Amino acid sequence: MLTIKDRTFKTAVIQTPLAGCTDLAFRLIARDHGMELAFTEMISSEALVRAHKKTYTLLKRAREDSPTGCQIVGPDPDSMGRSAAILEPLGFDILDINCGCPVRKITGQEAGAALLKDPKRAGKIFRSVIRSVKAVPVTVKMRTGYTDPSGKEAVRLARIAEDCGLSAVTVHGRTKAQGYSGKADWRIIESVKKVVTIPVIGNGDVFSAADALRMRSETGCDGIAIGRGSLGNPWIFGQIRAAFGHNKRSVPSFREVKQTALRHMDLTALWDGEKTAHLKSRHIACWYFKGCPGSSRLRERINRSRSFEDIVSIVKAYEPHRPV
Ligand SMILES: Cc1cc2nc3c(=O)[nH]c(=O)nc-3n(C[C@H](O)[C@H](O)[C@H](O)COP(=O)(O)O)c2cc1C
User: Fold this and answer.
1) How many angstroms does the Cα of residue 119 sit away from the middle of ligand 1?
2) Which overall architecture, per CATH, does domain 254-317 show?
3) Structural domain boundaries in the chain
4) What is the pLDDT of residues 84-138, one digit of tens each?
5) Can you give 297-318 as a three-state secondary structure string?
C-alpha cells in the first residue's frame, strides 16, 4: 500500500515516466498486468501554456487509464504553476515536478536535473505549483545530484520539497552526469528517506521482483518506481506484487509475450493512428523480443518494414526456434 497525501494505492509499485514510451497504449497494457499508478510522459510547461498541439496529444487518456499522474518539466515558476492549474481539472491523480531530466535541451534552460544545483529556483517552482492547485497531490522526481554523487543535493532538495508542501519524492539513484551509465546508488534513496517524513519512492535498476525486494529492504523506501524494466515486460508489475504477497506470480509463455506485443501495437494504432504506430512499433517489438533467439534478424526485418501492417505480419510470423 502507498499513501500520497489523501490518495491510497493498493500497491507500492508504480510506473515511472519514460518520454516516448509510457503513452496510453503502454499504460493500458501495463494495467492489464498489475500496474496501478501510472505516469504520462514528461510534459513541457512552456509548451502546455502555449497550447502546443503535440503536447496535448501526450495527455490522451481513456476511462480505464486511472489512476494516472502527470509529470511537468520547466524552468519558470509562473509557467509551471499555470500548467498545474491547466492539468488539475483534467483529473490527474498526482502532478509530478521533474528535477531529474539530464537532456541538454532541458538542463540548458535551467530545468530538470539543473534544479538540483539551483535550490532557490526549485523552491520557487514548488511553491508556485502548490499555490496553483486546489487538492491534487504534488510530488517531485529527482536524481541524486548534478555531478556530486554524495547525495547532498538530493537530500537538500527533498527537504525543500517537504517544506514547500509536496506530498512525495522519487529518487533515481544516479547523478545527472551519470546519465544511465554505471549502477544506481540506492544508498542515496536511504539518505533521503532518513530526512523527510513524506513518502520516498526508490527508482533505478529494478529489473526483477528480487531487485524490488532488495531495494525496499536496503533503503526502507515507501514505494518502488519501475522504468526500463517494464519495457516489453509488463509482467514485472504482477511479479513484484506477488513478491510483496499481493497475488500469484506470473511468468509469460512465448505465446503470451507475442500476443501482448501485438496487442500493444494494436492499441498504439488505435490511439495514435497507423503512421505513428508504425514508427512506435519498431521499438515496441524490440522491447518484447529482446534476447529471444533470432531477435537481431527480427529487428533487421522490422527496421526494413514499410507499414504498420508489415510489422504486424513480421511479428505474427516470428517463432524463436524458426529462422525469420
Ligand atoms: C527512454 C527514457 C525516457 C525517460 N523519460 C523520463 C521522463 O519523461 N521523466 C522522468 O522523470 N524520467 C524519465 N526517465 C528516467 C526514468 O523515469 C527512470 O528514472 C530511469 O530510467 C531509472 O529507472 P529504471 O532503472 O527503472 O529505468 C526516462 C528514462 C528513459 C530510459
Assistant:
1) 22
2) Orthogonal Bundle (1.10)
3) 2-243, 254-317
4) 999 999 999 999 999 999 999 999 999 999 999 999 999 999 999 999 999 999 9
5) HHHHHHHCCCCHHHHHHHHHHC
